[in-house]
Amino acid sequence: RHRPPVIMQKVEARRRTRQSNWIYGWAAAASFLLAFVFVKQSWVDSASLNDPRAPGRPVSPRGHLASAEKATIALFRQASPSVLHITAISVQRDLFTLNLYQIPEGTGSGFVWDHSGNIITNFHVIQNADVAQVTLGDQTTWKARRVGVAPDKDIAVLRIDAPTNRLQPIPIGTSKDLQVGQSVFAIGNPFGLDQSLTTGVISALGREIESVTRRPIQGVIQTDAAINPGNSGGPLLDSAGRLIGVNTAIYSPSGVSAGIGFAIPVDTVNRIVSELIRYGKVTRPGIGVQIAEEQIADRHGVKGILIVEVVPGSAAAKAGIRPTRREGSGRVLLGDVITAIDGKKVESPNELFILLENYKVGDVVNISLLRDGKTLQTKVTLEAVQ
Q: Which of 36, 243, 384, 386 has its CA 20 to 30 Å from the CA of residue 359?
């Protein structure tokens, strides 16, 4: 069929366009291939630039180390033999063969406390362990026994039967006179191979973190020295090489050091460890009552510490403090509400725990109570509670 001239022109234009695109495509591909070959050949040809006679560059003289560097090196060499690696192990039984298997639950750091073989670490390092192994700085490994733990303070004391000449106790300092800005050094043994050192300054004092028991740990040291999970339980030292804290936690969404590390102050550690070594537990001062959770107290409109139960024969019972009770009709009669101790107001369980930490067993305190809308005062002798 005869096609109009206009249509024939369009068909011819399309044919020429397709032909041009095909030619340009092949030209581009050929150009790319040639360029690739050229670049590759140029790279290969660069091997001809090798000079077998080329000498090594001379080493520039270092000169003497700065005094601050020398001090840090000396501090690390002095303290590192006291730092150790801890492996927490759980024991499980195979359901079919009944064989026992040891499964690593986690690792952490610790340090030698004394020549009796007492070892300090974080409670959370050995929390889920049935057995623990300690690797000293000389790479000898020892089975550890648990002396005592203080979960509320994230402190644990272990003991190994190593010879005295293998034990190098770490020097003890104090945390009461620490200053923001002073240099600190964190030493750990995260992999059981060798100690690691990170440096920084005290960023803040008097911080509060939450222990594994959800109780507050007060007076915590905040530092920007990198403290990674494997360094938990290791020592935080001052520039004199003295223990000023136990590295316990980091605050980081990713779980790695983000410039905010925490350490339990050594004055708290010294007091807690002494009790754990003597008695295997920490005796906290109390009055022998069970208190309501803050949410329950709020639900009843109570501002203070609502007493739920009073332990028979306890200091609270002797002082006549009344618990919450239920009448025969089912109506709940709220017990006494503690509003202050020695004139210091308390409105939450955490405030009560923190306040009682300033006392010791045997101290007499004046407790302000709210009973039936009236304020009463009573004296109570603090006793040891679990």
A: 243
